């Protein structure tokens, strides 16, 4: 026999240290891990890749004059 608690998935681990996440700091386990993640974003360690044409700019040399 199963109870409703048996169907509840386990919380995802903290992406910084791997400990179980705490609802107050979700998805992290603590304020420290949340701050570590924020510092990584602010220092540029994390980056969202863009398309190649975004990096080159919109001017591709085919202007109509």
TrEMBL record:
<feature type="binding site">
    <location>
        <position position="33"/>
    </location>
    <ligand>
        <name>Zn(2+)</name>
    </ligand>
</feature>
<dbReference type="GO" id="GO:0008270">
    <property type="term" value="F:zinc ion binding"/>
</dbReference>
<dbReference type="InterPro" id="IPR005584">
    <property type="entry name" value="DNA_gyrase_inhibitor_YacG"/>
</dbReference>
<dbReference type="Pfam" id="PF03884">
    <property type="entry name" value="YacG"/>
</dbReference>
<comment type="similarity">
    <text>Belongs to the DNA gyrase inhibitor YacG family.</text>
</comment>
<dbReference type="GO" id="GO:0008657">
    <property type="term" value="F:DNA topoisomerase type II (double strand cut, ATP-hydrolyzing) inhibitor activity"/>
</dbReference>
<keyword id="KW-0862">Zinc</keyword>
<keyword id="KW-0479">Metal-binding</keyword>
<feature type="binding site">
    <location>
        <position position="17"/>
    </location>
    <ligand>
        <name>Zn(2+)</name>
    </ligand>
</feature>
<dbReference type="InterPro" id="IPR013088">
    <property type="entry name" value="Znf_NHR/GATA"/>
</dbReference>
<protein>
    <recommendedName>
        <fullName>DNA gyrase inhibitor YacG</fullName>
    </recommendedName>
</protein>
<comment type="subunit">
    <text>Interacts with GyrB.</text>
</comment>
<feature type="binding site">
    <location>
        <position position="14"/>
    </location>
    <ligand>
        <name>Zn(2+)</name>
    </ligand>
</feature>
<feature type="binding site">
    <location>
        <position position="29"/>
    </location>
    <ligand>
        <name>Zn(2+)</name>
    </ligand>
</feature>
<dbReference type="GO" id="GO:0006355">
    <property type="term" value="P:regulation of DNA-templated transcription"/>
</dbReference>
<comment type="function">
    <text>Inhibits all the catalytic activities of DNA gyrase by preventing its interaction with DNA. Acts by binding directly to the C-terminal domain of GyrB, which probably disrupts DNA binding by the gyrase.</text>
</comment>
